[in-house]
Amino acid sequence: MLTLEGVDAFYGDLQALHEVSLEVRAGELMALVGANAAGKTTTLRVISGTLPARGGRVLFEGQDLAAMPAHLRVAQGIVQVPEGRRLFPFMTVHENLLLGAHAPQARAQQEASLDYVLRLFPVLKDRATQLAGSLSGGEQQMCAIGRALMARPKVILLDEPSLGLAPKLVKDIFEIIRRINRERGVTVLLVEQNANVALHTADYGYVLELGRIVMEDACDRLLEKDDIREFYLGLKESSVRGTRRWKRKKTWR
């Protein structure tokens, strides 16, 4: 469904992506993990059209997106949930959700989409007339995902959905992401600094370091790789009587 071929991206003279290539298949839940400033958000921005690629190609369903502006990519079915939610704080929850159905195709199915979103996130029905800026962090994330669903996406680009959330809310949000993928068949490209939760949620994963893809595999196999366990899951290998064990590394403050 979505392919990046040798994509380069820059902020001014600073190169943020170096020949990034990846493929997201239809119906897949795919994770892109890496440390802070690895280029994860930049990758999503290139896909959604808010940052132009200076080299390589972005293909969606076989179509080269180079000349397509961001709003037309949304109409084609590429919808991003940005880091930090980016709701309109002085508009109500209901108004924020309706903005997601701006494209003509989505507007025609607005009522059905809204019904699904409110069943998926019952708390948003209770908060419908409340200003979005007054919601809790978890409720704002639900509203941001709901707004994306209102656009009737083929693929959702999720940027750090766990950011700033308590562990219980993180678990709930990722359960919902799985439901959207499984029940609605929406393809998901998940960007997360929390590699543990991302790789336990997704089907396939890519690891990005300093703007380069350095590893890819099915998530269950990535979770068994020593580099992933040590550098992204915080586990350190130890040997006890000839057997391999992993323990949580100590962190000092």
Describe the structure in your own words.
This protein is of the alpha/beta class and about 250 residues long. It has 2 domains: about 220 residues, Rossmann fold, CATH 3.40.50.300; about 30 residues, no CATH class. The protein is about 35% helix and about 30% strand. It is built from 11 helices and 12 strands. It has a 6-stranded mixed beta sheet, sandwiched between helices. α3 packs parallel to α7 and α5 runs antiparallel to α7. The chain is globular and about 45 Å long. About 40% of the residues are buried.
Quick overview of this protein structure:
Helices cover about 35% and strands about 30% of the residues. It has about 250 residues and is an alpha/beta fold.
Q: How are the SSEs ordered, and which strands pair?
A:
Layout: E1 2-11, E2 14-24, E3 29-33, H1 40-48, E4 55-60, E5 63-64, H2 70-76, E6 78-81, H3 93-99, H4 104-107, H5 110-120, H6 122-126, H7 137-150, E7 155-159, H8 167-184, E8 187-192, H9 195-201, E9 204-209, E10 212-218, H10 219-222, H11 226-231, E11 235-240, E12 243-248
What labels describe this entry?
Rossmann fold, alpha/beta, 253 residues, globular, single chain, six-stranded mixed β-sheet, 2 domains, four-stranded antiparallel β-sheet
